Amino acid sequence: MSERTYPVSPEWAKRAYVDDAKYKDMYARSVKDPDGFWGEEGKRLDWIKPYTKVKNTNFGPPDVSIKWFEDGTLNVSANCVDRHLAKRGDQTAIIWEGDDPTKSKLITYRQLHEQVCRFANVLKAHGVKKGDRVTIYLPMIPEAAYAMLACTRIGAVHSIVFGGFSPDSLAGRLEDAKSSVLITSDEGVRAGRPVPLKANADAAAEKAPVKTMIVVQHTGGKVTMKAGRDVWYHEEAAKVPADCTPEEMSAEDPLFILYTSGSTGKPKGVLHTTGGYLVHASMTHQYVFDYHDGDIYWCTADVGWVTGHSYIVYGPLANGATTLMFEGVPNYPDESRCWQVIDKHKVNIFYTAPTAIRALMQKGDGPVKKTSRASLRLLGSVGEPINPEAWEWYHRVVGDDRCPIVDTWWQTETGGILITPLPGATVLKPGSATRPFFGVQPQIVDADGKVQEGATEGNLCIVDSWPGQMRTVFGDHERFIQTYFSTYPGKYFTGDGCRRDADGYYWITGRVDDVINVSGHRMGTAEVESALVAHDEVSEAAVVGYPHDIKGQGIYAYVTLMAGVAPSEDLRKELVQWVRKEIGPIASPDVIQFAPGLPKTRSGKIMRRILRKIAENELGSLGDTSTLADPAVVDDLVANRGK
Ligand code: WT7
């Protein structure tokens, strides 16, 4: 572990909203008097009916119930758009940068208002009402933000499905959300290549309850429109008025569902609500990125993930910011793309994932150094642990030793950032997410739930609620309680391992459950296993993560074939394609090892510990194998590692 520290520079201590003394002061107040602290913080939003109650939360056992600002009413799109019109109607709200470097677009708050209203009216015209679920399967184009905000304007609940997911994954999410309206586009484009979104949506709709498909024309690629079901967005938008009154929503009305993978079963619909989520997204965006009026802010995530929800759309727009939305990828047309975009749009704040940093670092300093990046002031990292080498490179080469890095730890479930440096307050240590944000009380427990004090390592829990916390699993509150509050009753269990050092800094060590983090994307090993066993020639599969230089973790699959089926290179390729088709390209196994048998206990439980060690090539520390039903299978797995 790197022990080098990076102090707060005098300029940062001066310009930032929060210095170290203020951080300590605000933090103490936030945990001592959450009602007072958040009661004031909630005023950053415009409420239709102001709240009189602030925090009403209970982590059980047995019941878990989380409510914030419960008697207040508001509208999210009014907070993200309308309220900015008087002061910044002509300010750019969204900078759109296309995959093709010659394509970009600026959208002012006034234009955003018109677009959101039109989209809302199109949804209304197709019968969408408050509380209905609308699924969004779009590329990174401004219409994605319009569609999200349009849902919030009329009180519909959006469920965004990342454009890289397969038709089957999309169908499962449509079905679980009981969503009859699907918004998609003809195609997406990534690195110059088309992505057939409409064709995928058609395949998904065969298996799902889709009654209306609204299709945004983006590339002009050829698609088939099904009469009675499919409509072109631009045709519908031309028929409706450019104004739409925002619906009055209660703070605890559902805002969106976002599916995420867990250690067991199908992906869960994480449900976020209106008031607390927006307070948290707005506050963290302001303080963590030290966002000031006029700053140009760029988060490279996709709106299909929670980072895109909270830190491309809701947090920045609630703050009247200029937010950049990028359709492309970091290495197209070449490895300088991100830095060129920064120079082109004079980006001040840049927020990306360690996997992108590692991939670009591998190409050397050249592609970075031929750009200016003089506008950059602050860098951010999110999605997975950042190794100190990548952190140092990001700081030295990208940030020219001048820009602090905020390594922000959070989850789909947390709605917004929970553990993070504040650039004017926190001495940085490469690889550490440092200290808790306001109101967040982390705790480290051992396997039995015993609280560990001081410098220690164990499992990360959060002991009390924060406004952006998820409220339930859509349609399955019992699963919510089981997944997050039953391992350590009365505490929210994150699923992450964590170390706390002598300075009270937190170092996230990665998942301790059967979830792997591939390029910052969360993947349940059980999901990949069930995709593999769905193939006719596979009898059994076990999937584990292993360290991968660029992706953070790679996917290692042990596959047992049906009797009589011979392993071959062709079959290996076919299985990789099969998983891509079943789940999506992000789930492609990096390694498939054909295993005649899997290590099982006498009761038939697969011993993943051993499979992980073999995948990690830690053959000297396989541990006790004597309890296995057939210890000889381990010898075979070791002898044929990776084959
Ligand atoms: C998991 C959550 C956070 C939004 C994007 C991912 C890992 C996230 C960090 C970080 C170390 C991190 C954790 C967490 N993670 N940020 N800064 N340092 N690990 O959201 O898909 O819900 O994944 O990502 O393991 O549990 P997600």
Keywords summarizing the entry:
single chain; alpha/beta; seven-stranded mixed β-sheet; 21 helices; 31 strands; 31% helix; 23% strand; binds 5'-O-[(S)-butoxy(hydroxy)phosphoryl]adenosine
Describe the structure.
The chain is globular, with a radius of gyration of 24 Å. The protein has an 8-stranded mixed β-sheet, with helices on both faces. The chain has a 7-stranded mixed β-sheet with strand order 5-4-17-16-18-19-20, with helices on both faces. The chain has 21 helices and 31 strands. A hairpin with a 5-residue loop joins strand 25 and strand 26. The protein has 643 residues and is α/β, with parallel strands linked by helices. Helix 2 packs across helix 3 (34-41), helix 6 (109-125) crosses helix 7 and helix 8 crosses helix 9 (197-206). 5'-O-[(S)-butoxy(hydroxy)phosphoryl]adenosine (WT7) is lined by residues 260, 305-307, 382-385, 407-412, 433, 494-496, 508, 510-511, 517, 522.
Query: What is Rg?
Result: 24 Å
Largest sheet: 8 strands, mixed
Hetero groups:
5'-O-[(S)-butoxy(hydroxy)phosphoryl]adenosine
Which whole number gives the mean pLDDT?
A: 97
In whole angstroms, the N-to-C terminal distance is: 33 Å
- Biggest sheet strand order reads 12-11-8-6-7-14-15-24
